[in-house]
Specification:
By secondary structure, this protein is mainly alpha-helical. Helices cover 63% and strands 1% of the residues.
């Protein structure tokens, strides 16, 4: 009892210690251990995740993720299996609700807890779909912090710890959870389904908040999963999406698109750059969406003699001249 700072710190440490200790339940399964796990999970969902102290809510979110990763061992009684499945869905619902928390530290902890569950329970069709639906629904929250946190979740879900760059704070947490040191990526079909929804739906919606979310998620996946073959093979598609978003009316979407075009350009084959820059200039001059790939060029001559002209008749041959053109049309941020 009590709400002093020292007491809060004690509760914080105790919750994390208990949840991590429960990971041994996989090695020592028994009816008693599963009853204990269920009681702990219920207490965290009903009392600690609604605690007035943000520190308690945040550590409880991580603890729920850890507890949810504890697998049911083979030959477990059917009633325990059914009970476990139902409770996991309750845990996911609780963590998704915490993404609405007014304190960003709690939101980040909830996203970490959800990421733990998504990595471990990707073979559970019902939970996997519940997680994806919950992640995509966060675009309606209209919070930049939330959508970028969910982007990290999606990147880890897609690339696993094998191909996704794992944030340091989350990497330290994974060290305490069994079998999390090396998790492979999703299957190609699953990756394609996620990316197609982001590129084909969220990046094209009329709502600016949805386009912000789609652009942020796609950027995070592309950059975090840089080594993932499924992402490398889609660079052309990413280029088209971000090129089209360069002319978006929303500032955040434009900023993300501009950063991503530059990122893709740095990894594009040299022989493709002239055509990509030409397409980019065409987009600037006409305002039309592109159906091909495009990039920006270096500070050197792109094509001897120039590859296009400005409305004033001046030749465009260098990246510097493209910058000048963008300034002339009043949109320097597009560079």
């Amino acid at each position: 009892e009590g709400s002093g700072e020292s007491r809060i710190q004690q509760i914080h440490g105790g919750i994390l210690a208990v949840s991590l200790s429960c990971c041994v339940l996989e090695d020592t399964p028994s009816a008693f251990s599963w009853v204990m796990r269920r009681s702990l999970t219920d207490a965290m969902m009903k009392r600690l995740c609604t605690h007035q102290a943000p520190l308690i809510r945040s550590v409880s979110a991580i603890a729920l993720g850890v507890l949810g990763t504890v697998r049911i061992p083979p030959m477990t009684a059917s009633d325990i299996v059914q009970d476990h499945a139902a409770q996991i869905q309750e845990v996911v619902t609780c963590l998704l609700r915490l993404l609405n928390d007014p304190v960003m530290k709690v939101v980040q902890a909830a996203s970490q807890g959800l990421t733990l569950l998504s990595l471990r329970l990707r073979d559970n069709v019902a939970v996997y779909q519940q997680l994806l639906d919950g992640f995509f629904a966060t675009r309606k929250l209209k919070s930049e912090d939330v959508i970028f946190s969910i982007g990290e979740c999606l990147a880890l879900l897609i690339g696993g710890t094998e191909f996704c760059e794992v944030p340091e704070d989350f990497r330290n947490l994974l060290l305490f959870v069994k079998d999390f040191t090396l998790i492979g990526p999703l299957e190609e079909g699953q990756i394609g389904a996620i990316l197609n929804e982001i590129m084909g739906k969220h990046c094209r919606e009329a709502s600016a908040a949805s386009r912000q979310a789609g652009a942020a998620w796609l950027m995070t996946i592309m950059m975090r999963c840089e080594r993932l073959p499924a992402c490398i093979s889609r660079h052309g598609q990413f280029q088209v999406i971000f090129a089209n978003l360069l002319t978006d009316t929303d500032d955040l979407v434009q900023d993300i698109a501009s950063s991503c075009i530059g990122w893709i350009f740095d990894r594009a084959p040299a022989e493709n750059r002239s055509a990509l820059v030409s397409a980019l200039v065409g987009t600037f001059l006409t305002g039309k969406k592109t159906s091909g790939t495009l990039e920006r060029d270096e500070e050197e001559e792109i094509v001897p003699g120039g590859f296009g002209v400005t409305p004033n008749g001046d030749k465009l041959t260098t990246y510097k001249e493209i910058c000048s053109l963008c300034n002339d049309i009043g949109q320097p941020e597009l560079v």
